[in-house]
Amino acid sequence: MSDRRFTLDTSVLVYALDRASGDRHTVASQIIARAPFVECWLTLQSISEFYFAITRKRLVSIAAARDQALDWLGMFPTVPASATAVRAALATASSGRASYWDALLVHTAAEAGCTAILTEDLATHATFAGVRVINPFAGATLSTGAEALLAFD
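RE: above sequence
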C-alpha cells in the first residue's frame, strides 16, 4: 500500500465528461488522464453513481456512458463496499459529519488503503476514517494537493 493511494469522487468522473462544466471539466480531464499511472483506486459506488448521473443528465448516450464506465473498470483497481463500510458510513452519517453516500465512499476507500479522496463535496482538509479530503479544483488548474497525488515519481 502506498501513502499516496487515493480515490475519486463521482463528481470528478462526471466533470470529466461534462464539457459544459468549464474549468472543472478541464481539471477533471487532467485528473482522469494522469490517474491510471499513479495509485488511484475507484470504488464501485463512484462508477455506479457516475453512470446514473451522466445518463440522468443526458450528457452522453446510454451506450457512451456504459462504455466509459466499462473503460474505467478496466483501467483502475476497484473496490466494493463491504458490510463494515456500510456500518461505519451509517455511524458517520448519523453523527452529521457527512451524507451517507459520501461517508460510504470514504469508508470503502479507507478499506482499500486509500489515504485521500479528490472531491469538492466534503470539507477540504478534513479527515474521515484516515482519508484526507482534497478539493482538486483551484480555478482552471489542479489544486496543490491534487497535483501532489498525481505527480509521477
